Inverse folding.
């Protein structure tokens, strides 16, 4: 059976992807330092899939620990989620982000090189497009940086492109996620942010639950259909399935290629509020406040390259995203039990 190393596999997107991988018969090995996640997520993935997952609690920046993991397994590929992801925190602590995300990736790539593992799926982000001039966003649009988090993604993408140029035996899928939301339909795994959420969907579900009083909508005067910001929300299970498609593509020696993973449809904040009200059967109180600095008006993608090359497209609609996020939140009002 093929073994695949998943860095950050205890996290939100990682846990959902490990589940799809385990279910498709891949031998999953996770390395995670649990700096933003719980071991319980991995246990639950084992429970849902009925498959064992090998877990190492280690930091990808720790060269010796990474070496030990690579010595013990023969990996066909690596799926690389591990990283810090909070935009605001990256502005306050840029060096932590550069070290964790960029140095961590260099350490990982060096271990891969030593052990001749040259297949990688990398979690990039729509943030590499900066504030796009037009929508839908295509992969050949200009790339730019708007904050230190985004810089780490762009630097890593550039490193990957250089690596492939240096040796074309490297195959790297740069997956640019748009806005991942929702949860597995079992309601057993989902997004579990520390403290007050910064992102829209986890904030709305906390308001629906009554643990936060109201949603503050950042800006009602954008040049969009209802004045609120528009994004391309994608169900996390669709995203996870996209990783399986990318892993299959690696077998064709595709080189280093970037793919947008989104639905190709924009949704405004107010539309999301209405969809969540339908899912939970109650009104979501909100007020419209000033714009959040750094936010773009409208970001949604053209996902047709992923459809053409990977045979993948998002299947789940906004109502499924809200229903599944709500199920997870109701079943786990405080997230995973704290170990
Ligand atoms: P997450 O925080 O839930 O998962 C990241 C995981 O990596 C966590 O389990 C964390 O403990 C682990 N980790 C972090 N640094 C590590 C290190 N040095 N060593 C070992 N483990 C480490 O985040 P997520 O939402 O699942 O995101 C996964 C990836 O996708 C990240 O790289 C993120 O930047 C990227 N991404 C996320 C979004 C989003 O909105 N969620 C959007 C675009 C891209
Ligand atoms: N929003 C609110 N109120 C909130 C939170 C968000 O109105 O409390 C609005 C934002 O202004 C934006 C939309 O909801 O219009 C989505 O905001 P999110 O914070 O959920 O997501 P972003 O699109 O701002 O950012 C996300 C990730 C980033 C990543 C980016 C592009 O958080 O890490 O997508 O992939 F870089």
């Amino acid at each position: 059976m093929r073994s695949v190393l998943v860095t950050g596999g205890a996290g939100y997107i990682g846990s959902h992807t490990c589940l799809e991988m385990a279910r498709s018969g891949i031998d999953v090995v996770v390395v995670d330092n649990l700096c933003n996640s719980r071991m319980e997520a991995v246990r639950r993935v084992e429970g849902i899939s009925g498959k064992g997952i090998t877990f190492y609690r280690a930091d990808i920046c720790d060269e010796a620990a990474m070496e030990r993991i690579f010595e013990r397994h023969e990996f066909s590929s690596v799926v690389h989620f591990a990283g810090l992801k909070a935009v605001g925190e990256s502005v306050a602590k840029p060096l932590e982000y550069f070290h964790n995300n960029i140095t961590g990736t260099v350490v990982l790539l060096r271990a891969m090189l030593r052990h001749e593992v040259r297949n990688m799926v990398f979690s990039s982000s729509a943030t590499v497009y900066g504030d796009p001039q037009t929508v839908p966003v295509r992969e050949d649009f200009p790339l730019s940086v708007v904050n230190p988090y985004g810089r780490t993604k762009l630097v890593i993408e550039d490193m990957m492109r250089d690596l492939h140029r240096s040796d074309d035996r490297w195959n790297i899928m740069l997956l640019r996620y748009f806005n991942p939301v929702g949860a597995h339909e079992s309601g057993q795994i989902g997004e579990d942010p520390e403290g007050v959420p910064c992102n829209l969907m986890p904030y709305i579900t906390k308001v629906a639950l009554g643990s936060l009083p109201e949603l503050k909508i950042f800006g009602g005067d954008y040049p969009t259909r209802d004045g609120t910001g528009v994004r391309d929300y994608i169900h996390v299970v669709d995203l996870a399935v996209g990783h399986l498609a990318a892993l299959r593509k690696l077998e064709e020696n595709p080189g280093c290629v970037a793919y947008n993973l989104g639905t190709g449809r924009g949704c405004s904040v107010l539309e999301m509020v209405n969809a969540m009200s339908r899912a939970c059967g109650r009104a979501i109180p909100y007020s419209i406040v000033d714009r959040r600095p750094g936010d773009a008006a409208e970001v949604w993608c053209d996902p047709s390259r992923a459809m053409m090359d990977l045979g993948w497209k998002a299947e789940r609609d906004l109502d499924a995203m809200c229903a599944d996020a709500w199920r997870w939140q109701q079943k786990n009002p405080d997230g995973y039990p704290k170990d």
Notes: The first strand starts at residue 3 and ends at 7. The domain at 3-182+234-262 is CATH 3.40.50.720 (Rossmann fold). The mean pLDDT is 97. Residues 85, 87, 125-127, 177-179, 198-200, 203, 215-218, 229, 231, 269, 292, 295 surround UFG (ligand 2) (CB under 6 Å).
